[in-house]
Every structure is written in structure tokens, then in C-alpha cells.
Amino acid sequence: MKVQPDQKIPTTVLWDEAYLAYKFSESHPMAPKRLDMTARLAEDLGLFSLPQISIEAPYVASDEELAWVHEPEYVQAVRDASAGKFESMPERGLGTEDDPIFPALHEASARIGGGSLVAAEQILSEKSARAVNFAGGMHHAMPEKAAGFCVYNDAAMAIHRMLDAGVQRVVYIDIDAHHGDGVERMFWNEPRVLTISVHETGLSLFPGTGFANEIGGPDALGSAVNLALPPGTGDGAWLRAFHAIVPQLVRAFEPEIIVSQHGCDSHSQDPLTNLELSVDAQRQAAIDIGQLAKEVCENRWLSCGGGGYNPVAVVPRSWAHLIAVTADEPLPVTVETPERWRRYVKEAYGVEAPEKMGDDVDLWWRSWEVGYNPNDDVDRTIMATRKEVFPLYGLDPWFD
Fold it and tell me: The Histone deacetylase domain covers which part of the protein (predicted)?
């Protein structure tokens, strides 16, 4: 969708309080309150009132739509679990510690899938250039089973719909702390889809996959790209790694649409991971992906949420920034969070909310072009990924 330089970028935000039904238990890390606080923060910041933003409600995806990327037998198993027909089916990932069964399991999960399908349709129909489904990003769900808090893979469903509509090249960029294994698996041998995952190494974090030599199936070598960063990687090193891999491959692939997953569990305060990013760096990554969408594919960009298990201090700020960036109106990190929002968080959840939209950090990073340090763990990780994939795109051909 071509947007004139002086024109606001039409953007769809998927939101409905029905999303809050995706609740495994009172104590489960995937807490729906993180979505509630994100939506309220975005509204109180005035983002939902921006003239270029339209709010659309998700719908519950049909079994036929779910079967685009999931086995029909698995969809039926989720339905049966929701109906209380069994307590556990480990071979389907249901009734496990990660994915407990609850009565609304099928409907709540399929609604997230429907949300990303609405987002995809808004872009395909050119009603919007961009869309964000911050409740989505369920990237671990596999064709045959649930995994890692994810039941149905909404991002993969959206990509499938795009391909079915005639889109020839889609780039999927995943910046969650965990490897985007489900989406990668579903398009492993599909040359029309390039999946790029920037994550903490599987040597220290679930799901234990996503290494540099995992590069796609025999008919699509180079279609999977994995940047497996060491534990403790902070803002500067993470951004250095991102900029040493992602922009070059996106430009070489020339996608028609970018789909991105913005799990914010890479934050230093996330209880389940070992990366050390700030909200500021997560915002910067969103800005960089948005710039690529502007440069390469006429602004067509579908962004999703994902992981994030600090529901007060991290998730709402990171995804409010994501909404603002997707709408091409990024918020300064120095902006104060609205008093109304902080009061709500205190009254509803009994905790103090952050007073500013950023973490007050220095985001400087060293460009890859200034030199490679073979003694640096992150640089070795970058080099491993570039050696595996770049020659397949005519980049760094001396590695071939």
C-alpha cells in the first residue's frame, strides 16, 4: 500500500476484552493482565485515538482456518480438552505444566488466531498498510501439538493466508527471547517465506533449538535464519547482532509483507529468560523493523506480541511502544506514563507501575562494519549465522 510522505500510515489495532479469556490459571506466567494493562496504557497515552488507527475486534477462527497450519486431529483434541473429555494428552502438549487445560482453551486460542487473520485481511485488502495484534505471537504452537504456552499459531495462520492470497515473499522476524520454532517449522521447506529468529541460545533456554546451522529444508535452503545469542546479551550487543543480520537479509529477500513477533521476554527484568535488554532497545528494534517495512515493502507490516512475563514493568510499555511505532508515531522514551494508568495498576493489581516509558539507558552500539572481534561471544554468534546463510543470498560470498 503506497502512502504519501505527508500521509499518516493507516494502521489496524486488534483489541477486545475477550482476549483476556486466554488464561491457563491464576498462577500461570502467561497472565491476561499483561494484555489488560497494555490496552489501558495505549488508550491513556492517546494511541487508540490517533487518526490513522482503527480498532478492530478479533473473531474465533474456524476449524478450517486452524487446519491451514494445524492437523485437524490436533484441533479436535483441543476441542475435546475444552469440553473436559480428558485431563491430559502429553503427545498433543495438552494438560502439561506449560499448557494446562481450561474450559475456554479452544475458543480463546482460536480467537487469537482470528485476530491475526483480521490483521492480515486488513493489509491484503489495503484497508490498512499496517496492523498489530499484541495478543498474538503464539510462535511455539506446532502443527500437531501445543508448546510453550502456545496453542494455535496465529502468525503462521496469517502468513498462510497471505500466501494463499497470492503474496510471493513474506519475511517473518521473531525477536522473542525464545526461538520462533513453530513458525519456522511450518515454513521450513517453503521458499516464499524467510523466517529470522533472534533469540537466546537453545543451550540455556527453551525450546533448545534455533542454532546457526538450522537453515531450512532441501527446497528452501536459507529460508530459516537463526541468531542464537549467549545469556547476558545486553542492549548494545543485541542491537549490533540484529543490525549485522536482519536488514541485509530482508533487503536481499525483497518481501512483499513483513510479519514480526515482538515477545518482550528479552528484558533484563523478565523472570524466565537470561537476556538483558531494556524497553528502549525493544522499542528501537520495532522502529528498525518498521523502517525496513517502509523501505522494502511499501509499509506492509503485521506485528504481533508474544512472550513477556513481567506483566507490569515491561509488557505494557514495550507493546504500547510497538503500537505507536506500528502507527509510525513512536513515543519518546522520556514520556511519563499517564497518572490515570498508574492509578489503575495500583488499584487493580496492588503494585506500583513505572513512571516513564523508558528505562533511561544508553542505546549506543558498535556497527558490524567497524570490525569483528573473534574473542567476543556475540560476534562469534553473528559470524556463525552469516557464514551459514549470507552466501546463499550473494552476501559475504567469500564464505562460499
Answer: 28-324
